[in-house]
Amino acid sequence: MLAVRLHARGEGLILEEVALPEPRAKQVRIRVAGCGVCHTDLHIARGEVPRVTLPITLGHEVSGWVDAWGPEAEAGLATAGLRAGDPVLVFGGWGCGECADCLSGEEQRCTTGFSPGFQVDGGYAEAMLVPEARHLLPLGGLDPMRAAPLADAGLTPFRAVRRAAPWLTPGARVVILGFGGLGQFALQYLRRTTQLRVVVCDQRPEKVELALAMGANAATDTHDAERLTTHLAGPADAVFDFVGTDATLGLGAALLGAGGLLMVVGEAGGELRFGFARPAVESWVTTTAWGSIAELREVIALASAGELTWDVEPMPLAEAPAAHARLASGEVTGRIVLVPGKGN
């Protein structure tokens, strides 16, 4: 089968022929319908993410069809209600299944866990292995290729907004830094909470226009804290940073009012100097870890009910390097999804 592999940090992606993986024990093989291209993939390819095992097939935002399984997988498939050929979305935070986080449903936080495209081969391929059927969620009537971004771009901001709920009271002032795939889902989740003033900041003019069209109260390309505060009509109660650089973390901290929340979602490797009075007094700075299987089920339900919109641009698997280049340049408005067999 064909797979896009990274052999060494910074050396670029290579499309090559590899053996079709054979499932063992409880493993399930899926035939990949599509795999979203995420900014985290760019950071992995550049060597900016430490928890990566090389060489590896990239891709953690994966959908497909149940294809084959190991001899111990039957019970898990039955429990999940899955049969051969069923369309599924892959939950990517694979935990040990035994620790406190796993047993509480927060498997993605497992300290000994692993994920596709990080420690094991992912979805930039025609097929991939999933450790157990419990990591596969039925897609029902959703188009599997279009559904791929829900596994991260849809899930991660869902969890971030949910965790920020105590700050999202009526009249709260909210900032979204970065309006790519995740930021666009975040705005939709925030709009389900009424009476918020939401301001979007993105350097690309077309994304500023898109934010306004999607219901932001204001949108701008400025990174000047004073001007952004004017758009907000006061200090921010909550800032969602979907970029995660030194610059955006500093901007988010500067926008916060007393007791405000800075939610760091982007994995660009940025750091924030933290002290008693900066960010503002009694403010909160936290990160969010992907999302749980239960939360991904909720995201799929919202999408199935037609309550979410997202743009997908399919590209052939062979064009993964070009997809990375376009994403790095900032010219991708929605989500590129690599599609095996499409012009490869």
Largest sheet: 7 strands, mixed
Query: Which word captures the global form?
Result: globular
Instruction: Kindly name the structural category.
Output: alpha/beta
Q: How many domain modules?
A: 2
CATH superfamily of the largest domain: Medium-chain alcohol dehydrogenases, catalytic domain
CATH class of the largest domain: Alpha Beta
The assigned CATH architecture of the largest domain is: Alpha-Beta Complex
Order of helices and strands: EEEHEEHEHEEHHEHEHEHEHEEHEHE
Radius of gyration, whole Å:
20 Å
Task: Describe the overall structure.
- The protein is of the alpha/beta class.
- The chain has 2 domains: 2-151 and 291-339, Medium-chain alcohol dehydrogenases, catalytic domain (Quinone Oxidoreductase, Chain A, domain 1, Alpha-Beta Complex), CATH 3.90.180.10; 155-287, NAD(P)-binding Rossmann-like Domain (Rossmann fold, 3-Layer(aba) Sandwich), CATH 3.40.50.
- Helix content is 26%, strand content 24%.
- The chain contains 11 helices and 16 strands.
- It has helices spanning 39-45, 74-80, 100-103, 144-147, 155-163, 181-191, 205-213, 225-232, 246-255, 293-304, 320-329; strands spanning 2-6, 13-17, 28-36, 56-57, 62-69, 87-90, 127-130, 136-138, 173-177, 197-201, 218-220, 236-241, 256-264, 284-287, 312-316, 335-339.
- The strands form 3 sheets. Strands 3, 5, 6, 7, 8, 15 and 16 form a 7-stranded mixed β-sheet that branches. The protein has a 6-stranded parallel β-sheet with strand order 11-10-9-12-13-14, with helices on both faces.
- Strand 15, helix 11 (320-329) and strand 16 (335-339) form a beta-alpha-beta unit.
- Helix 5 (155-163) crosses helix 6 and helix 8 (225-232) crosses helix 9 (246-255).
- The longest helix is centred in the C-terminal third of the chain and has 12 residues, at 293-304.
- The chain is globular.
- The mean pLDDT is 95.
